[in-house]
Amino acid sequence: MDRTLLGLVLHPTRDASEIIRIIVDWAARHGKGLAVRDQDRHRVPPSVETYPEDELVRRVSALISIGGDGTMLGALRSAVGNPKPVLGVHLGRLGFLVEVEPPELPEALDRLISKDFTVEAHSCLVCDVCGDDVVAFNDIALVRQPGTGFVVATLAVDGQRYGYYRADALVVSTPTGSTAYSYAAGGPLISPATQAVVVTPSAPMAGISRSVVLSPDETIRLELTHDSGPVAVEVDGQVIREASTEGAIDIRFRREAGLVVRLDPRRYQERNQLKLSLMDLPLLPEQLRELLPPTLREQLNRRELPPPR
Q1: CB 55 within 8 A of CB 1
Q2: Are strands 62-67 and 85-90 parallel, antiparallel or unpaired?
Q3: 168 is in an annotated binding site
Q4: 54 in catalytic set
Q5: Where along the chain is the active site annotated (predicted)?
């Protein structure tokens, strides 16, 4: 029997027991193995194997992320050194990366093990933060601490200094991350088909006040100046360093660092278009149907059919 092993990446706090039960039942019927990280052993049945995170990624043929976009980003980061396909299952309300709803899960798992899917490659930012290497699939941000001054940093591209920022925050994002913090700070929406890096200041007070879009082949360096206030460093929304008052961040773009499973790319794009409409992008009235549950959408379609003659 094929000993396929699938890794589960769980939302850190939300109850995922119902979705775990669906996956465990499916795995038992199909003779497939499941595994989680050691720290999640108390959240799964005894039949699920446990491994340290690095070993888990090496052993599994694919990862199943159970949560929202944050959980999905964590799954992608965990596998950046050894990319594995990641299937995202919703445990939240709004997400741009996650595709599968819980009722669709058994069919999605069938397609996953039969390799009936396409892979969407995602790029990441590789960042040297004061000597520590980190990766970000959405963004890396320098954020001021309230009441302690501003983020003041110079920008250099491929070693050439271009100017400085004085702002509440500086957000460096991938195209995927352009819909997150960067967008909230006033940055542009970048097509995921584009390879680019966007640097966006939030609430700029002086210096560069607009987003800068750079080539993926350029190296970015943000260096704090002597008059900068204490700065926190966030990677995909997670604080990795607090109250830094000096130092620099070197950022490079890495192509195809993460592999996202897509079962229905066209439907996924249609859903994302609707999600983007929540960010004030235009929405056609008929597109509102996609926001309805499938059963209600079918009932509405039947009501609008012309009567038989």
Answers
A1: no
A2: parallel
A3: yes
A4: no
A5: 69 (proton acceptor)
CB 166 within 8 A of CB 204: yes
Q: Which of 54, 69, 128, 217 is catalytic?
A: 69
The amino acid at 308: P
Q: Which two tokens stand for residue 119?
A: 């892979």
Asked whether residue 93 is marked as a ligand-binding residue, the answer is no
CATH code at position 113? 3.40.50.10330
What CA–CA distance (Å, rounded) separates 69 from 236? 10
Distance (Å, whole) CA 221 – CA 170: 12
Indicate if 264 and 230 belong to the same structural domain: no
The pLDDT tens digits along the chain (309 residues) read: 346 899 999 999 999 999 999 999 999 999 999 999 999 999 999 999 999 988 999 999 999 999 998 999 999 999 998 999 999 999 876 667 888 989 999 999 999 999 999 998 999 999 987 666 899 999 999 999 988 899 999 999 999 999 999 999 999 999 989 988 999 999 998 887 889 999 999 999 999 999 999 999 999 999 999 999 999 999 999 999 888 888 899 999 999 999 999 987 666 565 555 455 555 555 455 555 555 556 666 666 666 555 555
Query: From start to end of the chain, where are the E strands?
Result: 5-10, 33-37, 49-51, 62-67, 85-90, 118-129, 132-136, 139-144, 151-157, 160-167, 169-173, 197-202, 206-207, 212-214, 220-224, 231-235, 238-244, 248-262
Please check if 138 is assigned to a binding site. yes
Q: What are phi and psi of 50, to 5 degrees?
A: -130, 145
Q: Is 177 labeled as ligand-binding?
A: no
Q: Which amino acid is at 92?
A: G
Please tell me whether residue 72 adopts helix, strand or coil conformation.
helix
**Residue 264 marked as a ligand binder:** no
Q: Could you give the number of structural domains in the chain?
A: 2
Q: Are 61 and 82 in contact (CB under 8 A)?
A: no
